Every structure is written in structure tokens, then in C-alpha cells.
Automatic annotation (TrEMBL):
Keywords: Signal. Residues 1-20 form the signal peptide. InterPro entries: NTF2-like_dom_sf, SnoaL-like. CDD domains: NTF2_like. Transmembrane segments: none annotated. The keyword Signal applies. This is SnoaL-like domain-containing protein. The keyword Repeat does not apply. SUPFAM superfamilies: NTF2-like (SSF54427). It holds the Pfam family SnoaL_2. Residues 26-123 form the SnoaL-like domain. It comes from Maricaulis maris.
């Protein structure tokens, strides 16, 4: 029992206070059709896992992915954070709703990200996945 209490105390001491990290500018860069700027929000070894396609890794591949979506009409992107959990001393797991308009109409998506805190205190995306689901709205 002592080990469980000690482990719980150590985890709570080592885990920073967690606040939602909407990464100001991420949605703005998508809405401005700037895929290279969007890719800068990702770590150099980040991976995105879009539904129905193979994962893409690295900033160049991520920029190409967002560029393609922008070409086919991605717009009006907005984020609403839902839950943020500590995943270690410099990582957090966050879920959010993303709203966007695309070639097939407006969508509400569930997004999950793992964010990594840089020494500068800024956050970058390490892993990013979302669903398209049946949540069309107009």
C-alpha cells in the first residue's frame, strides 16, 4: 500500500498543472491556406493519423496533407477543447472538437493529440488523429 501512495505522490509531483493547449494560430494557419505554417505546429518527428488513410510522418508530409485538404476546400476551421490530461512531465493528451467546412459540407470531428512541451515552454504536436464520423451539419 505504501508503494502505491508513494507512486501516486511522485506522479503528481512530476506532472505539471495541465491546461488546454489550443495551440493559438493552428486553426488560423489552416484558414489562411498556409500549410507550411501549419506544419510548424508539429514536432519534426510528428505523425498524423487521418481516418481512412495511412499515417504521415514529418513536417513535409504533414504540410502536403494539409495543402491537399486546403486545395479541395478546407475552410472555417475552429477548435473547442474538451479534455486535457497529463501524460508525463512534458507531454499532455488532449481531446477537442474541430469544426470545419470542406468539399462535402460542414463537419464536426473529434480530435485527439499528444502534445510535447519544448524547453522554451511552447507546445508542439507529436501525434494527431481525428475521426470524420457521421456528424455533418450545415
Amino acid at each position: 500500500m505504501r508503494h502505491v501512495i508513494l507512486a501516486t505522490l511522485l506522479i503528481s509531483i512530476a506532472t505539471p498543472a495541465v491546461e488546454a493547449q489550443d495551440l493559438p494560430g493552428w486553426a488560423d494557419s489552416l484558414n489562411a491556406n498556409r500549410p507550411e505554417d501549419t506544419s510548424e505546429f508539429y514536432a519534426s518527428d510528428a505523425v498524423i493519423m487521418p481516418p481512412g488513410t495511412a499515417p504521415s510522418g514529418g513536417r513535409d508530409a504533414i504540410a502536403r496533407y494539409w495543402s491537399h485538404l486546403m486545395t479541395v476546400g478546407l475552410s472555417d476551421v475552429d477548435i473547442l477543447s474538451r479534455e486535457t490530461l497529463a501524460a508525463g512531465p512534458d507531454r499532455i493528451y488532449e481531446t477537442a472538437l474541430i469544426f470545419w467546412r470542406g468539399a462535402d459540407g460542414a463537419r464536426r470531428l473529434q480530435r485527439s493529440v499528444i502534445l510535447w512541451e519544448l524547453r522554451s515552454g511552447e507546445w508542439q504536436i507529436l501525434r494527431h488523429t481525428w475521426n470524420y464520423g457521421p456528424q455533418r451539419f450545415d
